[in-house]
Design brief:
Layout lengths: L1 H13 L3 H14 L4 H14 L2 H14 L4 H13 L3 H14 L4 H15 L22 H12 L2
Helix pairs in contact: 1-2, 1-3, 2-3, 3-4, 3-5, 4-5, 5-6, 5-7, 6-7, 7-8
């Protein structure tokens, strides 16, 4: 069943094997296409692996079914950023913040996008790049990134 594959994917991910996690989650997605939990997990693993275009496709599909879901929009914005589409990322995170202005994760994503656009941060190639090179003078950066990564690992 898809749940067995989903749980295997989460287990492999927890053990640090993103490639095996992706394989299990891909099987879960084949069995139960479009399931939001599977798509969210798989998109996050794809972003870790630098497979941003595939993550964008999954995130766009999720947003198309729930266009007013701020978390999904923030995930899509992050996928756009890693896929080197910073303008789409900015527009998407702005839409997420219009829905949930106080969401700290969306605010963190907005800051990362702004830093990439203004050149103070290199464009990330994968999800882990966001953890590197935090801006100077920002002591809560690590906390915001941890929340962002936890969102993809739910």
């Amino acid at each position: 069943s898809w749940t067995v594959q989903w749980l295997l994917g989460k287990a492999w991910h927890a053990l640090g094997d993103a490639q095996r996690a992706a394989s299990a989650l891909e099987r879960a997605n084949e069995i139960e296409p479009g399931h939001d939990a599977v798509a969210r997990e798989l998109a996050g693993v794809y972003l870790e692996l630098g497979r941003a275009d595939e993550a964008v496709s999954l995130a766009e599909a999720a947003v198309s079914t729930e266009p007013q879901h701020a978390d999904l929009l923030a995930n899509l914005a992050l996928a756009y950023l890693i896929a080197n589409r910073p303008e789409a990322a900015r527009k998407t995170i702005d839409a997420a913040i219009q829905i949930a202005a106080d969401d700290p994760v969306s605010q963190a994503v907005r800051r990362v996008i702004a830093e990439v656009q203004d050149g103070s941060r290199p464009a990330p190639q994968n999800l882990m790049d966001i953890q590197t090179a935090p801006p100077k003078g920002n002591p809560t950066w690590g906390q915001r990134v941890k929340r962002l990564l936890q969102r993809f690992q739910r």
